[in-house]
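Entry 14. Structure prediction run on the chain below.
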Amino acid sequence: MLRAFKKEGELELWAENPAGTYVLVKKYSIYATSGVLGPKRRFGDVQVPECFYELDWFNPQSNFYLSLHVSYANAADRILGSKQNLGGDIFLHGNCVTIGCIPITDDGIKEIYWLAVLARDAGQAHIPIEIFPAGLTTAGLDQLASTHRNQADLVGFWANLKEGFDFFAKHHRPPVVRVDGGGRYAFSEK
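Output returned:
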């Protein structure tokens, strides 16, 4: 599983151990970013999405060395985003350039791509990637709330993401993620 933190410019690689919990394996630098902190809500907004996704297909012929597609738009994005065109083609890729994607070094994507292929070949059908505006500790959310104090909906969205962030911190396993009719996330073990 992967966890990206936009403000910190970090991508974390986690792997499941024999006990069934996840341990941090490695951190990678995210080398470029576009947009601002906040979710992707429409085509052309140059935003990197924030939410709970999967790496759902592999692109070995990428213009950006190698790439793994992020399953944007999810159910919450479709409820909360533009009803016209949400955009898409969000990737984790190499080449250190971007408009709305998560770029890392070519060596980094080669390593993650190879591990994702191994995980898929070993039977892992879903490879989670969680994308956060920042580390959503209590202090991290408080800082975001302070700098975005006139954006109550955005801070409320981040508070909902924090519930999933806290679930992982407590259980060291990715949560099962569900979306209600209003686009709000709910998290559980099963």
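DSSP finds four helices and ten strands in the chain.
Filed with the rest of this week's runs.
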